[in-house]
Amino acid sequence: MNAWVIAAFSCYMAGMLLIGATSAKKSKNADDYFLGGRNLGGWVAALSAQASDMSGWLLMGLPGCIYALGANQAWIAIGLFIGTVLNWLFVSGRLRRYTIKAGNAMTIPEYLSNRFRDKNHILMAISAVVIVIFFLVYAASAFAAGGKLFSSVMNIEYKWALTIGMVVILAYTFLGGFIAVCKTDFIQGTLMLVGILAVPIVAVMLMGAGQITPNLIASNLNVDAKDFLNIFYENGKPISATSIASQLAWGLGYCGMPHILVRFMAIRDEKELSKSRKVAIVWVLISLAVACVIGVIGRAYLYPMVLDSAGSENVFIEMIKKIFMDETNLPFVGGILLCGVLAAIMSTADSQLLVSSSAVAKDLCSGIFFKKMSDKAVLWVSRITVLVIAAIAYVIALDPNSSIMALVSDAWAGLGSAFGPTILMSLYWKRINLAGAAAGMVSGGLTVIIWDYVKAFTMSGVDGKVTLATYTGIYSLLVGFFVSLFFIVVVSLLTPKMGDDVMKEFDDVKNGNV
User: What band does 512 get if pLDDT is binned at 50, 70 and 90?
Assistant: First the structure.
């Protein structure tokens, strides 16, 4: 590997560790470690939320799908953009106010418990279990992306590449908590945007715009080039309504992502929230659009190299290597841009580890089992939990053939179905009660697990049993979200409504009296 690329990676990782070490001094108690003292500025909150959201999926998973399957996969990006906008417009402000009003909650499980006066901590326990299960899968996707990056760039064995990435993420998450995560996410979000804009522009300049279509045709496409570039065509045929709906359904997941929602809770004030909203929407629009373009430009630019289905997720990495190490001989610049891929991976993994650790330390241990735990004890349980969860995620990610897209898809569906409808209804439906919230969370999470993992159906042309997801072609989030919504409404209406104090609290939040 080029010494300049190693230098770029070393500088980047050293900077992240330095931020973690300096932030450790500011994490004096659990409120600081989990929520940064509710003192995030607008720009930091916006880029932190979106960087923690997009992960290695943005620079590897999505371009890889476009590269392999065509522009029809852009419906996922469209759904995510719509979901981002709606989340910032309708969830961010009200959730921030409600978490303050509901006992100054520091985590999503704590908010739900306070919101529904859950004295038996049923919601807190369900929430913590859901978070740990699905964030294990989510964190594994980030570790897998890191392993593929280091393996490709450094030409080292996948296992060792995976280990390097995990150790760096663990170090600054363990040290600095929420403050470190948000500061590094701000830097990483900026670096991701620079890389995702620069690489396709330089690739087109070097290749020539006139070569895009001829190179696509020559790259062994399974369909005509015009169909490959048409979002309304899939496998050479008009795309089905089921496929469009399933891809758009990704947007439903936003209102149920604890690692994104916690950024809304931590913003300093309403003025900063308004600034964050604008920055985040512009960032995600540019990033998603260009990520789709990379899949197309990358296929044309890399020709005569044609990546197989397993290697398609490396399209962005291979473009950087070809541009800056083969054609322009600017390896340090290439190394910095490859750090953008690492930034995308790390910015999500750190958030997932932090939210998972808060679910165990703050919600399970301190909230349910050991209510007299000191702040210092909560901090140390949280840090130990980070290590344990990272270790399990590491084992899941050890398979070098792990699909980043598949892992993210499963985790996104589980979290979105379990939390999304409950969060939305808790903010906007006065009649929802504790029983309805619990029924919605359990039914949503279980639906995804059954839909994605239980193989009980036979399908022509396929050996053995398949899951409902494979059999129907419908994304589990689309099913799980509405199953959860159904149970929330039905169970809430069949059981007694909440007390007058809860109703008054709802009206106060609605009217801005916080």
Answer: confident
How far apart are the C-alpha atoms of 485 and 502, rounded to whole Å?
21
Q: Chain-centre distance of CA 265, in angstroms?
A: 17
Bridging pattern class, strands 465-467 and 237-238? unpaired
Q: How far is CA 169 from the centre of its chain?
A: 15
> What single string gives the DSSP state of each residue in 200-260?
HHHHHHHH-GGGHHHHHHHT--SS-HHHHT-TTEETTEEPPHHHHHHHHGGGGGGGG-HHH
Token representation of residue 157: 């064995």
Residues 6+ apart with CB under 8 A from 513: none
Which residue carries 């209406």 as its tokens? 493
Is residue 505 within 8 A of residue 101, CB to CB? The reply is: yes
**More confident site: 285 or 407:** 285
How many Å apart are CA 379 and CA 28, to the nearest integer?
9
Preceding amide of 238 cis, omega within 30: no
What's the sign of the alpha-carbon dihedral 423, 427, 429, 434?
positive
pLDDT tens per residue, range 5-64: 788 878 877 776 676 666 555 555 454 444 444 555 555 555 565 655 666 677 888 899
Q: Which residues pair with 466 in a beta bridge?
A: 457
Q: Are 334 and 321 in contact (CB under 8 A)?
A: yes
pLDDT 10s digits, 65-106: 999 999 999 999 999 999 999 998 999 889 989 988 888 877
Contact by Cβ (8 Å): 431, 489: no
Specify which residues 428 forms β-bridges with.
Answer: none
SS3 474: coil
pLDDT, tens digit, 9 for 90 and up, residues 320-371? 989 988 888 888 888 888 877 776 676 667 667 777 777 777 666 666 666 6
Residues 211-240, buried b or exposed e (16+ Cβ, 10 A)?
ebeebbeebeeebebebbbbbebbeeeebe
The encoded tokens of residue 57 equal 């999926």
Tell me the sheet residues that pair with 267. 40
> Which residue, among 487, 493, 496, 482, has the nearest Cα to 451 in the 3D structure?
482
For residue 375, the model assigns a pLDDT of 66
Helix (H, G, I), strand (E, B) or coil at 458: strand
Residue recorded with tokens 């403050």: 179
Scan for tokens 């990495």, then name that residue: 317
